[in-house]
Amino acid sequence: MSRILIQKALIAPLVTLPELTSSEQLWFTGDILIEGQYIKAVGKDLSGYCSAGGGSGSGKEAGTLAEKGNLTVLNGQDYLVFPGFVNCHTHAAMTMLRGYADDLPLMIWLEQKIWPREAFLEKGDIYWGSQLAVLEMLKSGTTTFADMYFYMEETAQVALEAGIRACLSRGMVGAGPNRETAVQESESLVQTWHGQGEGRISCMFGPHAPYTCPPEYLKRVMALADTYGVGLHIHLAETRQEVEDIRRQYGLRPIELMESIGLFDGRHVLAAHCVHLAENEMAILARHQVGIAHNPESNMKLASGIAPVPQLLAHGAVVGLGTDGAASNNNLDMLEEMRSCALLHKVAQMDPTVMPAPLVLELATKRGAAALGLKDTGSLAPGQKADLVMLKLREPHLTPLHDPIANLIYAARSTDVQTVIVDGRIVMKDRHMLTMDEERILYEAAVRGRALVER
């Protein structure tokens, strides 16, 4: 079993640890021990775990063990260690359309630009587009992502190879000619990939949205999800036009409609966007503990609106943070997304106390994990999966260090992320990727991206 000891780091555990004082709960200087996939211990001094038997041991002994391969010791001085980011909603292979169709309203962007190009997508495009997305995510500290797109077995293969944690769903359009194909491919994805990678890969069914999936189709998908014991990933209430169209057609708002057909009953649902909500809809989402993926930058760029996140949180809703796809963001950088989230809601509410830095970090980590229905990642505590990030603090823009969480949210950059561990495995060390061929990925994605828009 592999063992990793991170020593003398500044740690943001995002969970209450009994040995810490109240002033140390947000961050403290200490050690983290990883055994296999899991965090074994978190504390101020774990040098006693350095010996092979877990007894007392000195730094010298730890170094000897590291040389023998029994223990990998990482020096945490001048690093902030925190749980890996959970990107609650994206379309990974849309990296192939990054910068292709900008500065357009959502439906024009979809109908006139994105959907026509997506009709030409091939498996190879999805594979290399997913490679590019996962590379970008890992290099910026994301250890888990939820994805909805096409040819999802290709994305699953990438996630398996790269070592990232992924929650995958095949996008399903129930009002289109490929609705039956979408059902078959979704079922095959769940059968083949759910639980693979020692549990790192999980699957959901992915009905696109109420305006593309009528109730009868949604009920079929719900039944399939129940048969396989998995959840649903869906876009809800993203634009005012969607709300108006659904209300005109069914006499209900989107969240009301979903509740009326039983979408939220007895299964986990991940709902992307949730921008335009009435008060009763916020209560519905909170009551059913629907996971909400807040995508502030995509919603701003497409002028979809501002999701009422402070109000949702006040209702007790489960809210995480996502980037959406790189064609509407245009990056997958959760550090940038956190800053945008905090600033957007402060100005929207005209209240600088809204969405403080520690809360925003929770949205990007443990609350995001909860939004995906994951119970064993998102914080640094014994028994949790070892998904974590080491971020370099000794940089001009992070100095001085009055408040490391504030610096992380408001000042840190993705290039400050130095080392990333997923499921107890080091996938990036000192910004060098250990599980991915970065140069080939950049070449293949550039070539295929150009070819896609010329087809």
| Percentage of β-strand residues | 15-25%
**Fraction of residues in helix:** 25-40%
Biggest sheet descriptor: 9 strands, mixed
**Rg over CA atoms:** 22 Å
CATH superfamily of the largest domain: Metal-dependent hydrolases
**Low-pLDDT regions:** 52-68
Second-tier CATH architecture of the largest domain: Alpha-Beta Barrel
**CATH class membership of the largest domain:** Alpha Beta
- Kindly state the number of beta strands: 17
Structural class: alpha/beta
The 3D shape can be described as: globular
Termini separation? 49 Å
Number of helices: 16
Name the average pLDDT: 94
**CATH fold node name of the largest domain:** TIM Barrel
Q: State the domain count.
A: 2
Overall description:
- The protein is α/β, with parallel strands linked by helices and 455 residues long.
- The protein has 2 domains: 3-83 and 379-432, Roll (Urease, subunit C, domain 1), CATH 2.30.40; 85-371, Metal-dependent hydrolases (TIM Barrel, Alpha-Beta Barrel), CATH 3.20.20.
- Helix content is 38%, strand content 21%.
- The protein has helices spanning 59-68, 106-118, 123-139, 152-162, 179-193, 215-228, 240-250, 254-260, 279-287, 296-301, 309-315, 334-349, 357-364, 366-371, 404-410, 438-454, and strands spanning 3-11, 28-35, 38-43, 72-75, 79-83, 85-90, 142-149, 165-172, 201-207, 232-236, 269-273, 291-294, 318-321, 388-392, 417-422, 425-429, 432-433.
- β8 (165-172), α5 (179-193) and β9 form a beta-alpha-beta unit.
- The radius of gyration is 22 Å and the shape is globular.
- The chain starts with a strand and ends with a helix.
- Residues 52-68 have low confidence and may be disordered.
